[in-house]
């Protein structure tokens, strides 16, 4: 039962990641190494981008399981 529950969650997470990559093309391509560098106490560009894309995805879009 625990394994089945974990599998369902894993599948859902994979679908959400797939939808993010479809809707936001910046997440689907290769990322340049400069995007990962930060100054002290700053969040890197990639982390900010994923956070904003995820927030937009959660606020405005539903996950279509039948596409």
Automatic annotation (TrEMBL):
Q: Which Pfam families match?
A: DDE_Tnp_4 (PF13359)
Q: Which residues form a coiled coil?
A: none
Residue ranges occupied by any DDE Tnp4 domain in the UniProt entry = 3-58
Q: Which cofactor does it need?
A: a divalent metal cation
Keyword list (alphabetical) reads: Metal-binding
Signal among the record's keywords?
no
What GO MF annotations does this protein's record show?
metal ion binding
Query: Does the keyword Cell membrane belong to this entry?
Result: no
Q: What is this protein called?
A: DDE Tnp4 domain-containing protein
């Amino acid at each position: 039962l625990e394994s089945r529950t974990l599998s369902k969650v894993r599948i859902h997470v994979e679908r959400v990641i797939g939808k993010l990559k479809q809707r936001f093309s910046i997440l689907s391509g290769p990322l340049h190494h400069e995007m990962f560098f930060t100054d002290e106490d700053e969040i890197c560009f990639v982390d900010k981008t994923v956070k904003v894309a995820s927030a937009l995805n959660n606020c405005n879009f539903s996950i279509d399981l039948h596409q």
